[in-house]
Design goal:
Layout: H1 2-15, H2 29-32, H3 36-39, H4 67-74, E1 76-79, H5 98-107, E2 111-114, H6 132-147, E3 151-155, H7 160-164, H8 166-184, E4 191-194, H9 205-220, E5 228-231, H10 239-242, E6 253-259, H11 263-266, H12 296-299, H13 302-313, H14 323-340, E7 344-349, H15 357-373, E8 378-380, E9 390-391, E10 396-397, H16 399-405
Parallel strand pairs: 1-2, 1-8, 2-3, 3-4, 4-5, 5-6, 6-7
Antiparallel strand pairs: 9-10
Bound molecules: alpha-D-glucopyranose.
Length: about 400
């Protein structure tokens, strides 16, 4: 009798599950079969089978790569920013050229991150088809990167409507990712999928976590091989990773964060941030030789006023434009890596062209050294625009800034 019940139980278990499983998921059928004999003592139900099982269409992973190895491989990278995440490529001055890939590879970079505004190139109605010509353009960028021995991270950038109205756009977001996964599922694993750049606005932490999990599952039904990269809510800083809950059972994931501290230095005079960032001449590290008076628009903002008082007065070690805030970020990063058991990637850091060059070099090399001391791979923001390390007009590297990133 016990034997018959055991056989029946096993048949039930096998019958309602896919033989294909992502690796490492404890709730997967492969993990259940070995414990099946204990079920014979309670023959009424197969208790571990719950509706939360991934549907049977989940595809098998042929070569599920190790996430720590995948992160290590990212090494040193650069963002091909201001191109495909502009509403139309070229509108922000930057068009990705074939020669960039060889230049980037020869300079010693391992990776390009390609920010992409998919939402501007997909239908607004179901099934949210992605524009064919645009898809081909992304194909070309990926091909170029891979054929120049560069890893390539494609992301979803500037999906502003999603940040304004998450519930209106979550289905479209998932469908766009399904189309991307479908198209690239057979591409080598040097291609990475980064789900969403700097989640913010009404896409709060809870909403983002739910959407992230659903999207990961949707991608895994199509593509169980490519590494997925996720960042935290509230603009993708390290704080966003503090309470992040990663999709359960998913073990091919990398966590990303961005670092622009202090914003009053890295974003001084940038046109897309508020007037409070308008004071120029902020050097790194502080304190400055001659005290800086913030512009009136900045002085009116309490935290900015306080920041400048400290910047003008505090010594190097405790200056807000000194090593302290950056070291704190990396301390957190180390803790987050352990808590989440998730390898980290610093996907963006950089200082805008309105800061003086020596300060940009100081800051960039300091951040890069901190990251590398903790084995955190990174990607500089960005290649050839306002934060650029390459001058497109002169067709030459900004050698000093390049050396801040790749010293040898
Ligand atoms: C973020 C923004 C990008 C901006 C960069 C620096 O990635 O999405 O557009 O240029 O940060 O501010």
């Amino acid at each position: 009798m016990k034997l018959i019940l055991f056989i029946l139980t096993v048949l039930m278990l096998v019958g309602c599950q896919s033989p294909f499983t992502p690796e490492g998921k404890v709730t997967m059928p492969t993990a259940i079969l070995p414990v099946a004999p204990t079920l014979t003592a309670q023959p009424t139900a197969p208790p571990t089978v719950t509706p939360t099982f991934p549907p049977p269409t989940l595809v098998p992973s042929t070569a599920n790569p190790d996430r720590y190895e995948q992160a290590r491989r990212l090494g040193r990278g650069v963002n091909l920013g201001n191109a495909l995440e502009a509403p139309v490529e070229g509108e922000w001055g930057m068009v990705i050229q074939e020669e960039y890939f060889a230049l980037i590879h020869e300079a010693g970079f391992d990776t390009v991150r390609v920010p992409i505004r998919w939402s501007a190139h997909a239908h607004t109605d179901a099934p949210y088809t992605i524009d064919a010509t645009f898809f081909e353009r992304v194909d070309w960028v990926i091909d170029q990167a891979l054929s120049h021995e560069l890893n390539v991270v494609i992301n979803m950038h500037h999906y502003d409507e999603l940040f304004d109205e998450p519930s209106q756009h979550q289905t479209r977001f998932i469908k766009i990712w399904e189309a991307i996964a479908e198209r690239y599922k057979n591409t080598p694993t040097q291609l990475y999928f980064e789900l969403l750049n700097e989640p913010h606005g009404n896409l709060t932490q809870n909403k983002w976590e739910r959407l992230m999990s659903e999207t990961v599952l949707a991608i895994r039904r199509i593509d169980n091989t490519h590494t997925i990269i996720v960042g935290g809510a509230d603009w993708g800083g390290i704080q966003g990773l503090l309470n992040l809950k990663l999709p359960e059972g998913e073990n091919n994931i990398i966590c990303t964060f961005h670092l622009y501290d202090p914003m009053l230095f890295t974003h001084q005079g940038a046109g897309w941030v508020s007037e409070a960032y308008g004071t120029l001449g902020v050097v790194w590290p502080g304190p400055p030789e001659v005290k800086i008076t913030p512009i009136p628009e900045a002085e009116q903002v309490n935290w900015v006023y306080t920041w400048f008082s400290q910047y003008n007065a505090f010594p190097y070690e405790t200056n807000p434009a000194g090593p302290k805030p950056i070291r704190t970020t990396f301390d957190w990063a180390e803790r987050m890596r352990e808590r989440l058991d998730c390898p980290l990637w610093l996907g963006e850091f950089g200082a805008y062209e309105k800061a003086d060059m020596q300060s940009r070099i100081n800051w960039t090399s300091f951040v890069r050294e901190q990251a590398e001391a903790l084995d955190i791979p990174w990607a500089y923001w960005e290649f050839g625009a306002g934060f650029g390390i390459y001058n497109r007009e002169d067709e030459g590297w900004n050698e000093e800034l390049l050396r801040a990133l790749i010293p040898e």
